[in-house]
Amino acid sequence: PASAVGVVDTIGAGDSLLAGFIYALAHGIPLDAAMLFGQRLAAHTITSMQSVNPSISALSLLLEHSVRKDV
Fold first, then answer.
1. Per-residue pLDDT averaged across 3-14, rounded?
2. Burial class (CB in 10 A: 0-12, 13-18, 19+), 65
3. Alpha-carbon distance 44 to 66, whole Å?
4. Measured distance CA(69)–CA(2) in Å, rounded
């Protein structure tokens, strides 16, 4: 299931989901965990008024670490 977050703007959610998913796969994360990574990035994206949430670069490293623990 998707993360429960406070939705501010949904622009960029799909792009974030796919970008996170592809990024994770390219870094050797298994398929199910890669989708979770994409979901988490999308959830974070919709919490910002900007279509590219400015904290995603730093957040992506934290999310990748948490996804690896989930596997």
1. 88
2. exposed
3. 14
4. 18
Residue 63: count other Cβ atoms within 10 Å of its Cβ. Answer: 22
Give the torsion sign (CA, 57, 16, 1, 37). negative
Chain CA centroid to CA 39, Å: 5
In single-letter form, the type of residue at position 12 comes to G
Neighbours of 7 (CB within 10 A): 10
pLDDT tens digit string along 22-56? 988 998 989 999 998 899 888 888 888 877 777 77
Beta strands in the chain (DSSP E): none
Q: What is the pLDDT of residue 25?
A: 92
